[in-house]
What we know:
Blueprint: E1 2-10, E2 13-25, E3 31-43, E4 49-61, E5 70-81, E6 84-97, E7 105-112, E8 115-123, E9 129-133, E10 139-143
Antiparallel strand pairs: 1-2, 2-3, 3-4, 4-5, 5-6, 6-7, 7-8, 8-9, 9-10
Amino acid sequence: YTARYTNFYVGDIMIDGTRTFVFDGEINGSNLTFSVTSDMNMVLEDGTLVTENGTRSFGFVIGNTLEDILITLSGSWNLTVGNDEYTVSITDALKTKIACAYISEGEMSLDKNGLTVLIDFGDGTCDNSATITYPNGVTQEVSLDD
Length: 146
C-alpha cells in the first residue's frame, strides 16, 4: 500500500510525499520481506528541510529454532538534512540472527557530503565489532557499543 502526505502535520513538522510498503513471502512461509520506498520531504519547526528517498527491505528467514531466525536489511537511500547530504548503500545484505544483539554480517557504504566510508560487519560471528575503511584505504576496527 502507499501512504500519500500533502501538507500533513505532526506537531510543528510538515510532511509531504509518499511512502510505499510492500509485504512479501514465500509459499512455504519461511521467508518474509517488508520493503519501504520513500520519497518524502519534511520541514522541521525551525524551517530545516529534510528529504528522504530510497528503498529499505527488511527480511526474516525462519529457521528450525527461535535462535535460527535470521534478520536481513538491504537497499539504498538518501537523506538530506539542511546542507548535509547522506547516502547509505548496502552492498552486501546486513544480517544477524535474532539471538545476536549486533549486525554480524554484511557491508554498507555511508557517504556524508562526498566523504564515503565502507563498513564491514564481519563474517556472521556474533560480536560487537565492525571494520571501517576510509577513502585513503586506512582501516579501523570499531565497537558497535560506542
